[in-house]
Give the backbone structure.
Amino acid sequence: MSKVDRFEDLDCWKKSRELVNVIFDICENQMKNKDFSTQDQIKRAAISTMNNIAEGFGRYSNKEFIRFLEFSAASSMEVRSMLYILSDRKYIDEIAFEKCCQLTIDHTNITLGLIRYLKTKL
């Protein structure tokens, strides 16, 4: 793996950014005037996937970075769990549900792959 100088170059961060934008689009387009506290929570969890990667990258220690990557992966799983709530309540359609679930799975897998790699460097 080549040296990464910016967190914006990490695939897991790029996937997080995509997830955040899809979640915000869903909240703006499919959940208008519905359950604002749930909208707030899923947005915050999605944002956490991005921000934990950036914050961990800024720690300049693989051990610390791994810890923040684990937080990011956990936040992605929180988003996925909340998607079931949105689907069960019929706040989002099946297409949005499937797309977002896949994004959370992809993000988690990419993030866990980076964690495994970084652990070999400890």
